[in-house]
Design brief:
single chain; 11 helices; Pyridoxine 5'-phosphate synthase; transferase; Aldolase_TIM; TIM Barrel; alpha/beta; disordered N terminus; 8 strands; cytoplasm; pyridoxine biosynthesis; 255 residues; 16% strand; 8-stranded parallel beta barrel
Amino acid sequence: MSFLQPNGPVIDLGVNIDHVATLRNARGTVYPDPLRAAMLAEQAGADVITLHLREDRRHIKDADVVALRPQLMTRMNLEAAVTREMIDFACAVRPQDVCLVPERREEVTTEGGLDVIRYYKEVDAAVRQLQGEGIRVSLFIDADEAQIGAAADLGVPVIELHTGRYAEAGQDELAHELERIRAGARFGAARGLKVNAGHGLHYQNVQAIAAIADIGELNIGHAIVAHALFAGFENAVREMKAIMVAARLAAYART
């Protein structure tokens, strides 16, 4: 949060609005409106608005992306699968950022990182097409040196580390998973990549991830939308951003 400490450490919050659309679609209404959620999130301090246009359109719809693009004051981070349909759509809308993610129709939510090594050719073609339209590309990957190295070889400027295993870890595994994220972030930064992170983060587990100096942005959705039911959307965003910034400043003070 640069206005708190302009020359100090900064960590950005990307607010994922997918599950506002999930609630809307559950009843087939026009409300709650993801566009309004995005506007409120920006007013409350969100640095990025993230949304995932899935192939089955289970939450965000094409029209949501089109409506949001010219309205955002910050940045649109569009998550998309590596398919011709999604890449062509992204090139037509031209968000500031596209994050390429793996996708299976039967999954409840994204279950792991994109296998850049296995699908190197397909990912390379998608990256080239998006970059040709002036779109910054990131890859949603596991904190694995081989995957991070492959991402760097593709020439993408940004990676997003999948934090799902950390978020789901029990006490016996928590320290190991946290160190895995730290090591991945350190390795990515050393390769010249901007390192983001996200998945499964909430108000009780985000602190340790936010404290990692090599991570520049966290993307969080479900926890914020859930907390907003009780605290209000703007308050939920402000609380998350405050927790992240406090964790980063505390870590910075210890160095």
